Amino acid sequence: METMLLHLHLVRHGQTFFNRYNRLQGWSNSPLTDAGLADADKAAAKLRDIEFAAAYCSDTTRAQVTAQRILDANEAAGHVRPSLVSDMHFREQFYGYFEGQDMSVAWTAAGGPHGAKNYNDIVRKYGLAATRDFLKEADPFHDAESDNEYWHRVEDGFALIADNPRLKNGDHVLQISHGNTLLSLMHRFAPEGYDLSERPANGSVTCLDFDTNEPMDRAVSVVSYNQ
């Protein structure tokens, strides 16, 4: 089987009003602030010399606007502009009943019954997967994604990229991502040596190598984080 290694450049979308107000965003649509537009432009400057063979983002406005500004700058630098694929599989974690809630309130509700006072306390005591499972448990409608539901959707997003017949070994792919998704990918795939107490900044770039011929647990390797 021929090698099929893709270089993924994952950009966290620019700052939104929900980011500014410290609210869970998930599948909700909060527009970019002026600072968020500047975040997207900073990411565009970092990536202007890369020829992207494909581009993906979630079907949320914050991801789409960030992607378009990066692709605009990339095209202006003389590169061929790829079509942007906007798909729900690239969305952030779904927080269900807690969508739009103040983060401190939501994570206290999730962690409190388990003796954890906030998000970091849940991670420290129970691991990152528990943040999703505890939030689903605390959701009175149980609509929030469990850890298994979340990863099933995210892995389907990677499968969409892998199934793109136009991509070839060594191609560069732009993917607009989300804060908790980037942190989750790092927890799952990063070797030791990364400070994961530091959340990825809006407009930051995280680089992953994706071997489409490997099973998911071995397919992703981290090149850089939160640059």
From TrEMBL:
<dbReference type="GO" id="GO:0004331">
    <property type="term" value="F:fructose-2,6-bisphosphate 2-phosphatase activity"/>
</dbReference>
<dbReference type="GO" id="GO:0005829">
    <property type="term" value="C:cytosol"/>
</dbReference>
<dbReference type="Pfam" id="PF00300">
    <property type="entry name" value="His_Phos_1"/>
</dbReference>
<feature type="active site" description="Tele-phosphohistidine intermediate">
    <location>
        <position position="13"/>
    </location>
</feature>
<dbReference type="InterPro" id="IPR001345">
    <property type="entry name" value="PG/BPGM_mutase_AS"/>
</dbReference>
<protein>
    <recommendedName>
        <fullName>Histidine phosphatase family protein</fullName>
    </recommendedName>
</protein>
<dbReference type="GO" id="GO:0045820">
    <property type="term" value="P:negative regulation of glycolytic process"/>
</dbReference>
<feature type="binding site">
    <location>
        <begin position="92"/>
        <end position="95"/>
    </location>
    <ligand>
        <name>substrate</name>
    </ligand>
</feature>
<dbReference type="GO" id="GO:0043456">
    <property type="term" value="P:regulation of pentose-phosphate shunt"/>
</dbReference>
<keyword id="KW-0378">Hydrolase</keyword>
<feature type="binding site">
    <location>
        <begin position="12"/>
        <end position="19"/>
    </location>
    <ligand>
        <name>substrate</name>
    </ligand>
</feature>
<feature type="active site" description="Proton donor/acceptor">
    <location>
        <position position="92"/>
    </location>
</feature>
<dbReference type="InterPro" id="IPR029033">
    <property type="entry name" value="His_PPase_superfam"/>
</dbReference>
<dbReference type="InterPro" id="IPR013078">
    <property type="entry name" value="His_Pase_superF_clade-1"/>
</dbReference>
<feature type="binding site">
    <location>
        <position position="62"/>
    </location>
    <ligand>
        <name>substrate</name>
    </ligand>
</feature>
<dbReference type="InterPro" id="IPR051695">
    <property type="entry name" value="Phosphoglycerate_Mutase"/>
</dbReference>
